[in-house]
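ENCODED BACKBONE
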Amino acid sequence: VYLFQNQSQRLSYTMEYFSLDQNFMTKLLTNHKKIYAWTVNNESVMTGMILMGVNGIITDYLTTSQGGNQR
């Protein structure tokens, strides 16, 4: 888990996608935190991460992520 503090004093999290679950995401979203999932290289996992509410996806395969919803 990496934590970044920006100018508005909010913390953002970047985490490996397989360590994220809906319970953790709910806590982050409730507290207005941002979450970025990495390294998501599978289209179905990308869709799941989007549905889970991540703010961004880090991938090795940009063309896979451009096939559907973009964030």
About this structure: The first strand starts at residue 2 and ends at 5. Helices lie at 22-30, 43-52, 62-65.
